[in-house]
Amino acid sequence: MSVLSGKKILLGVSGGIAAYKTAHLVRLFIKAGAQVQVVMTPASKDFVTPLTLSTLSKNPVYSSFFDEDQENGVWNNHVELALWADYFIIAPATANTLSKMANGNCDNLLIATYLSAKCPVYFAPAMDLDMYKHPSTLDSFHKLKQFGNTIIPAESGELASGLSGEGRMAEPENIISFLENDIISKLPLVGKKILITAGPTYEAIDPVRFIGNHSSGKMGFDIAKIAANNGAEVILVSGPTHLDVKHPLISLIRVKSAEDMYKACFSHFETVDIAVAAAAVADYKPKNVAQQKIKKAASTFVIELEKTKDILASLGQHKKNQFLIGFALETENEIEHAKLKIQKKNLDLIVLNSLNDKGAGFGHATNKVTFINKDFAIEPMELKSKEAVAQDIINKIIQHYDA
Ligand code: CTP
User: I need a surface site. Which of 112, 218, 283, 336 has the fewest CB within 10 A?
Assistant: First the structure.
């Protein structure tokens, strides 16, 4: 899956011959799963039609401050357009457009949108080789880089003038891979490896029966997805669940019992920077597992149970520099019990669920948690979706590394 998937891309097209390649560029953005809107300079419409780009982007294309075709002249809100975007890509960026961007010369909708944008801006220059090297152009590059914009370098080859050299707009495929690599390299958890446990465990009674629980695994899977979307390499160790995940940065290890989960966790723990124990691990398992299916006979039946290994507590015992996060589900004296768990399991952060809070815990799409860190700083959070709670947990990890 591309990092561009689900992202809102604003493409700014200025008037150079390379504008004809933006039809292909828009298709590649759509193929990567992005949403695309296009803003054009008036001059660019001589090279590629708005109809082509609106058909491919599945959105109206804007090129003037108001809609001349409409009787009442509808104003095109450049601020809204700029704030909509996650990324603004100006391709092709002509010498003229680059100079206007660098100097705030706001005489068309593209420049007005650029000046309103708060998102990361990339520009792919396209011009003749001598224009590309001219001090005036280099001055624009310099200023734009100082503004925090990123240049997608031009490529060498045959130019529209017939000359050959540097100045061709980067090929659409190369623009896409440049963006993907650049976005990934700037993600806050890039280079970090995270172990996450999720779901229930099944403790066998006999070959066909087990002791389990109703955990869906959603919390752990959501944390895994958000961690991966922030650039982390994820080892997701999950008990039996119907959930699945496909992400190049997530390795899913499916396990059944607490013992399997323990082994899977410890085969990776040394290599990770962060561990999050979101699994609902069985605290007890049958002491003896019957080899054959148990037949019904007596009117009552007793299964002797013994404790499973506490995976999180063992991770706490063995941790070196790992940032360790656990969960606690409590029904009384919540804060005190959670603090004790932080100490007992040597945690850096605990995510406390109190069953006294409406909408928290099992069987809800929402969760209300309280964060308590190892210094016992308490931070109650609002009731929110489990996905938003997962995002909060990832934010805590990012803050830890930012501090
Ligand atoms: N946990 C674990 N291994 C276990 C039991 C729990 O890794 N065998 C982890 C859970 O993933 C969770 C945390 O420990 O992050 C808290 O689990 P919880 O069941 O609330 O606490 P316990 O320590 O089991 O204590 P109690 O049930 O007595 O509250």
Answer: 336
Q: Which of 83, 2, 86 is nearest to 36 (CA)?
A: 86
Residue closest via CA to ligand 1's atom 12 equals 327
Residue 66 lies in a domain: yes
CA of 281 to the centre of ligand 1 (A): 7
Total domains in the fold of the chain: 2
CATH number (domain holding residue 340) = 3.40.50.10300
Per-residue burial over 116-145, b if 16 or more Cβ lie within 10 Å, else e, is bbeebbbbbbbbbbebbeeeebeebbeebe
Nearest ligand 1 atom to the CA of 351 is 15
In the reported structure, the alpha carbon of residue 330 is separated from the centroid of ligand 1 by a whole-number distance in angstroms of 11
Which atom belonging to ligand 1 lies closest to the Cα atom of 197?
11
Range scoring the smallest mean pLDDT among 66-70, 182-186, 240-244, 251-255: 66-70
Q: Is the CB of 234 under 6 A from ligand 1?
A: no
Would you say the CB of residue 329 lies under 6 angstroms from ligand 1? yes
* Catalytic hit among 76, 96, 213, 395: 213
- Domain with 327, as residue range(s), is 193-402
Q: Is the CB of 140 under 6 A from ligand 1?
A: no
Judged by average pLDDT, the poorest of 25-29, 68-72, 334-338 is: 68-72
How many helices and strands in the chain, by DSSP H and E? 13, 22
- pLDDT (tens digit, 9 = 90+) per residue, 355-384? 777 766 666 778 899 999 999 999 999 999
DSSP string, 97-124: HHHHHHHT---SHHHHHHHH--S-EEEE
Query: Could you confirm whether 72 is annotated as catalytic?
Result: no
